[in-house]
Each structure stands twice: as C-alpha cells, then as structure tokens.
C-alpha cells in the first residue's frame, strides 16, 4: 500500500510501529500471555482486606497522562477496568523509555496491552489495577472511531446502521450493548438445545448442498458441483432429510443450521438465515403447539432474567403460555369480512382483485397462494401477541396431513408474533400416495409460472413408501426469534455478519489509464491524495497550479520523487482534454 493511501493517523501509527521494532520491541509477540482475571471479576470480587495480584490484558480505550503517572481504561472480553501506571514502578531502573517513549508516545488507543499488578481502590473510590509490569501485545495501526463528548454533544459516533453491520468488529468494540445482543443469541441457542436434549431428541446434520431444493416453497441459490458436473442447490429447508431420519427409526431429531433463499432483503429477511427444525414421532400438531409454548416461555425466561415478557417497540409481548389459537380462514373473515371456506380459486381471485383491490395478484397464483397473499396483506400484521394460526387449506400445505375432521384443510399451524411468522408446524403427511399427488399439483403450479413451487423429490417419496410413523414437525426462524426475545427492530441487529450490498468505492481512473497520459505510478497516488481521482478531474487545471498542489503533498510527506516540469504537467492536461 502506498503511503498516500493512508490517513494522517495511519501514517503516524505505522511510524510508531517501526520505532518499536527499532527499539527491539516486537509489536506482535508470539508468546502466550496467561491472564488470571477479567475486568468484571476484579470489580465484583474486590476486598479491602486482600492485596489481590492479577494479570490482565485487553484494548487500551482511553489514556490520561499526568506526568510521571497515568490512567488507562482497559477493555477485555467482559468489560472495562481502570489501570494506574506509574513511571517508576514499570521502569524501576535507570532506563525510563518504557514509560516516557513507549507508553506515552508509541502506544495508541486500540492497542492490546498486558498488565501485571494488584487491585486497589483509588481516592475517588474506583476499583482499579495498579500496574507493576506492562507489555505490548498487539499494535493497532488503524484508529478506532472512539466517541468523544463535548458540552453534552457526542462526536465521532459509530452509529451508521450500514457501517455497523459491515464492520461488526468495530461495532462490538466501541458500542455498548452490542456484544450483549450476541451473548443473548447464544443463550437462545443453548437453551433451545438443552430443552430438546432433555426431552431425549437428537441433534443431527443434513446436507447443505442438495440435488433438489425441497422442504419449502422458495427460490433457491444454484451452484455447480465440479466433481459430479451437476448443478446443485443451497438448501432452502432441512425438512425432507430430517423426515428420512424419522423413517430410519429416530424418535425425535432436530437441526439448527443455515438455510438459503434467493429472495429479497429487508428488515425481517436475510437470504442466509438460521432455522431450527424438529420432528418427533407419534405426535401431532396439537402436541406441538403445547410443546412450542413451553419452549418459548423457557427461552424468554433464560434471555430476560426470568421474565416472560419483552418490550418490542411500543408493545409488551408475553410468552407466558397458553397462546391464542385461531384457524386461518376465521382470521381472514375476522379481518376482511369475507368467508373463503367454500370458495373456488376463481372466486377467491375475484375477491382479492375486485373486492379487496389487491394489486399484487396475478394469473399464476393458485388457490393456496391467493389465500396466503390475502392473509399476509390483511391479517399477519395484526397479531402482536403470540397466536397460533391453524388449519390451513391443503393447497397451501403440500407436506401436511389432511385435517382429521375438516374437509379441504390440513393440520398445520403458523405462530404469529409481533405481526410476523415465527414458526411453521404440521402433523406431517406420511401417506406416500397422497404426497406424490400433492407434489404433482405443485409441479402444475410451476408450469403456470410459480417459481417458488416445490419440486418432486423422488427419493423422499421412496423413503415414505417404506413407512413413516405419525409425526409432528416444526420450523422456527432463529434470527426472528432473537429479534423478538431482545426487542430488536431489524434482523441485521441480531446477525453478526448480515448480507450486504457491495461496498461503494470512489470511482478512480486506473494506473494504466494515467500511464497513457504519461503519468508515472508514484504520481498517480499524489494526484489522488490531492483529490484528482479521475483523469477528467485535471481537465480544467492550470499546469503551474497543479504542479504547486502536488509539490506541497510531496513536501509534506517527505517523498523522494522527481518533480515533473510545468511542460510535463501541461502535457498531462492536454491529453486529458483530447
């Protein structure tokens, strides 16, 4: 990297890096630095009756130098603690360079340091560490965006949502509470696993690359498997493989893993998302509703210090069981006034397009897709408290068992919370002949232009023909569950590294393009530093003025460059104008 591509602070830090090496100090030592305490423990376990010796390490987040003594705020993986540093104690001999030169001049905010010392309380009552030894563990050559306050106004805040998501590593360092979000996410997953394990169910792993995108209605990502010379699909669901394991004799299996759907991105959707799917033999969707209530109440308590309530925007959502249960067609009738239970596909299309004036409907939509669109438009957002929407029409549920007492409906529920779907569950279809017919119906929808219709999975049908016991299954979106349990508005807030659009880059003419004007590579960087990123930027410049501007930069950075003549600058400008 050319020095002119760096900021002023980056240049100074790299100079400090070299000075440290010149002094014989390795800025990135390889040896282990065994710590024995964290900041949170130092504060919670402090006793005035004990002189506790500690070894700590972390980032230097602030520094107050007061002559021969200084205070540093050290941030480790648990929090922050103040460190008192005295020149004569970390430099007991004649040589004071460790304090006077290294600590005061060559170390920077963001550097990792190690400290050996003892715990004490300052005159102002702050529990701190009195340093006896100090060592540099890792040099930071790029400055952190540390927030500064003046007259109650915050400066240099790292609060742009896109930057926070794109550079999560900085977000975690400088913004309070971000790490806590992901520790809570870990609690959600740990609690869920423990809950399933305690019930005797087995965690398994199924293929991420699949020959058929099955188990859901969604557009897949396609890739190519070179060794087999076939196209493969990133899985959109784990369902069909987990059911194969129920056929194989497992009592209950679950998987927490990544799914991929090549669809839109918004505050509730990320194309790569984490989903949990669970399948248990000899159960039905009524049992699964009860089980889900227990699971979510347990998770909410674990994440929220024993409370079954959590604030989401203006709403307080209660995960205290039981939850409301409401058939989907009754929900539509409740919100729109239209009873769709005995209506044909054409009649429902007319209601949607004419009576409800929905502009998103087209001729490719089958009966199930029409009902789904109507529910999504008029009902979904109305269910803030956890509500089981049940008994979906068969056209909406190609993998679900027919309802035991309601013709044309299936034993399926979706759990709605805060206006969005959180979970989807069935009494699983285990009739292989019925399943094959429903797959064929899905293929007819695909022929009509529905690119989210399911593809026939012949191997799954073969597995069903060997016999699958009565089974209930559920899928829960982990990312959305974390949003709910932590009261977050955007899915990006609970993903460490969400998918992002490509990072915008300032347009620049290439080194080769500048060379065609006769500009040497070194001088391209000088031009860019002066703000001339494109060849067209110099068209209106005066040769003498351009020479002066670039000369000032060369002088400022002490660059040993041979300065072009005014005539050469004029030649650049002339060619830029051709």
TrEMBL record:
Mg(2+) 2 binds at residue 421. It is found in: Cytoplasm. The keyword Protein biosynthesis applies. Mg(2+) 1 binds at residues 414, 421. Its cofactor is Mg(2+). It catalyses: tRNA(Lys) + L-lysine + ATP = L-lysyl-tRNA(Lys) + AMP + diphosphate. Its EC number is 6.1.1.6. Residues 188-502 form the Aminoacyl-transfer RNA synthetases class-II family profile domain. Binds 3 Mg(2+) ions per subunit. Its main location: cytoplasm. Belongs to the class-II aminoacyl-tRNA synthetase family. NCBIfam families: lysS_bact (TIGR00499), PRK00484.1 (NF001756). HAMAP family: Lys_tRNA_synth_class2. This is Lysine--tRNA ligase. It comes from Prevotella illustrans. The lineage of its organism: Bacteria, Pseudomonadati, Bacteroidota, Bacteroidia, Bacteroidales. The gene is lysS.
